């Protein structure tokens, strides 16, 4: 195995073990060499970016750690997805002794640095959205006295990832963990009333939501309607937000050019309607930083110093950062005739 770390931070990690979680999901336990172990320390809820080559194409995908920092291993869990080139390829080909090129952990879907044990943690997971939630729940139970409530939705019992592990947690922490499984096959899709009922009476709580887009939308809307402060709502999206057909800008004039400062160089690129700032940088031949491409991690953030843009989705930047001109370039569409963006 090569020990060379790429200029973009990817290191080759050996697959130490492959665990078949369900018929369509596997966990990959990765062996981190001692010399770069410091680069792969992480907080519960974070993810790894994996770079692979499939049929001659370089592809990057983000996978949350399903292990917790208290473990002595680094593990990601990957579920098959209709049309998911990389997830299906990993399920089909990943084998013990194989190698994956992996960037260091990232992500802001994490537990607050300081939280009162009186504050509950409420988590909503749908399908493979259990992966970061599992890490968060295990960490909160092991390292605090917080009460934890987990609502886990799946198509049916056979789709439940970590079924045995969750049952063991519920038994071990029966005084602090409430686990509710929801099966679409029995009850239909998750409704706003089911969400409101589950969160009722939890008092001051941090709510974490991860899963398919329709599930997340239902949960998010129900939590906000219940009065949950936005600062207490944490979202992790697995799917890339698509630019609606025909969307260009909001200002009534077409964007003509985008000026990009990156790594000490300045490039002026013609703008193609509907492209994000990240896509524009790529078309200009720049190796702009990116990872999740869902607006969740903050890897692609840059600052607009002239002109304006709007973000399709933002689960990474706080209000102060946005006011200072920071944007997530993977989610940003120009809204002025000229835009100048700086990667710092």
TrEMBL record:
Annotated Pfam families: FAD_binding_6, Fer2, NAD_binding_1
Domain named 2Fe-2S ferredoxin-type: residues: 256-344
GO molecular function: 2 iron, 2 sulfur cluster binding; flavin adenine dinucleotide binding; metal ion binding; oxidoreductase activity
Keywords, in A-Z order: 2Fe-2S, FAD, Flavoprotein, Iron, Iron-sulfur, Metal-binding, Oxidoreductase
Known cofactor(s): FAD
Ranges in coiled-coil conformation: none
InterPro entries: 2Fe-2S_ferredoxin-like_sf, 2Fe-2S_ferredoxin-type, 2Fe2S_fd_BS, Beta-grasp_dom_sf, Cbr1-like_FAD-bd_dom, FAD-bd_FR_type, Flavoprot_Pyr_Nucl_cyt_Rdtase, FNR_nucleotide-bd
Superkingdom, natural source: Bacteria
Occurrences of domain FAD-binding FR-type (ranges): 8-112
Protein name: Flavodoxin reductase family protein
Organism per entry: Mycolicibacterium chubuense (strain NBB4) (Mycobacterium chubuense)
Phylogenetic placement of the source organism: Bacteria, Bacillati, Actinomycetota, Actinomycetes, Mycobacteriales
